[in-house]
Every structure is written in C-alpha cells, then in structure tokens.
Amino acid sequence: MLTKKQNFLETIKKGGKPDRIVKQYEGLYFFRGDPVNTYIRGTRFAGMPPMKDRWGTTIIWPEGVIAAMPHVTEETKVIKDITCWRDFVKVPDLIANCSADELWEPCMKQLENVDRDEYLIMAFAPTGLFERLHFLMGFEDTLVNFMLEPEAMMDLCEAIGEYRYKGMKLLVDHIKPDVLLSHDDWGNKTNLFIPPDLWRKFIKPQYEKAYGYVHDKGVIIIHHADSFMEQIVEDMVDIHIDVWQGILPQNDIVKIQKQLNGRMALMGGIDAAVVDRPDASEEVIRAETRRVLETYCPQGNFIPCITYGLGGTFYPHVDKFIDDEIDRYNREVFGIES
What we know:
12 helices; globular
C-alpha cells in the first residue's frame, strides 16, 4: 500500500499508478504561520472588529460566516481613481519586512515535526492577482477599468504580479516546500470574470513569472479557483499549474480530462452548494460524493474534494460523510482500507 504522499504524487502524475483515490487533502501538510502571510494578513478570527490589511483593504469576519472577506464600498475602497492608483496605495515591501532569517526560524522548527515520508509540505499563497484588484477597488470598478483604462490597469497588474512573485520566492526559498497552494478565483459558476483575451493580456503574464520560478525549483503548483474556466485550461498548463483545485461541476470535467490527458490534474468536483448546508442529509452528501467518484475518478488524475480552497466544510458533519464515502469506495473498488 502506498503512503499518503506516494499516492498523491502518483495521482497527479501523467501515467501515474495510484493504488486508491486520494481523500481530499490527504497527504498534504498545510503549513501555516509564515512571515509573508502574517505580515500581510495579520491575525483574523470570527467576530473580529473590522481591520485593514497591508494594502489598505478593509477586512471583516462576522460571526457565523465561513471566513474573512473584503468589505469594499464607495467609502472603504482603496483606489478611488485607477489613473493615479499610486496615490492611493503603496505596495507592501515584502523583501524589507519578511526576509530576515530569524523570522523564518519558527517555521523551520515547525517543519521538523512533520513526517516527510508520509506528507508533502504545502505552503500557502492566498489572495491572487485578480482577487487583489477587486479587494482594492471592488468588482464594478475592476471590470470597467479593464475596458476604459487599460494602461493604468496593466501598470497595477504588473505591480501586483511582482509583489506575488516576491512573496512566492520568499516562501519557496525559505520553507522549501513540496507544494505551493496559490489562490486566485478567475470566474464565477458559469463564466470567466473577464474575456479570455483580456485574461491572457493582463493576468497570465504575471503568473508566467511567479509560477515559472516555483516550477523551476521543483515545487508542485496547486492553483485554487472554484470557477468556470474551461476556456483557459491550456493556458493553465502553459503557466505550470500541476493541479487545478476547486474545479466546479459546472465545468465539463470529463471533457476537460480527455483534453488534458494527464497534463494537469484536477481536484474538486463535489458541489458545495449541494452538500455544505445545515439541511444536507447523509444520503445527499454520500450521493454527491459517489457521483464524483464514479464520474471523474475512473479517468485518472482526479482528486475528489470540496471545492473550497482549503480543507474542511463549514458544517462539520459534511466532511465526515464525504471522507467516509471515499473510504467506502476505496474498499469496494480497490480492496484497500484507509
């Protein structure tokens, strides 16, 4: 029987030979508390008072809500006029504030306790380029400015892209992770937020540099986007994404699997809108999980999981039944106990 780490690696590899279905984030050790994220995001918790991150975005986390979120209104938005965006925002200096070796020493001690034979170390790079844009000015201004002020938007995209590159470089150079989980939602349930040609002009070049560096260091890139993104699948391969995490079932997943033929693994498929709700019964949760197992997993290079960008569901009973159904499938199909 393969270890969790070995089974994950075989699952995402073209032509790999896993001996069972990976159970969501199984085999990945999610590393938290690095200096980059601590500096930019601060400490967040449910019920906290509104706070501002280093970019100036107001962040709120009301009680009963699944996570922190940007609160962008006419009053709170950082960039009031994209043509002079540098008057409103100063790009955080990660090199000056996050490079000192002593800041990273607690990270190294934390990693000493991880069983590297069983787990892959996964570093975290949240709030991607497109997300940062609407964090700074809201969705409406972001979309309008792509069309009306392309030069200023390109300047801002390049600045955010360089910031993301420096952050990923610091993570990779200090932690030396096996995996980088990077977040940037590029669409909703039915389409990309911007047309593919605009995405390729403004967004893709910034990831070519950052992900290129990560890839060259031998780090597996998991990109989270719980979005409809069929139109840019080949572009995702181009920029070295190894695993698209969060793929929604609104995408034609089977078609995408055939198109990719193992060049990029897919992770997700379980519709949170169906299962992660207080009234979801065990039968409904198991049925949705079994649908994913039987529809997508036989093609290979697929990991069933909730489509969120991190492990765990909002309602704890949901995760329990998802995991148990995957265990049941592995017993039935592969004869393997978890």
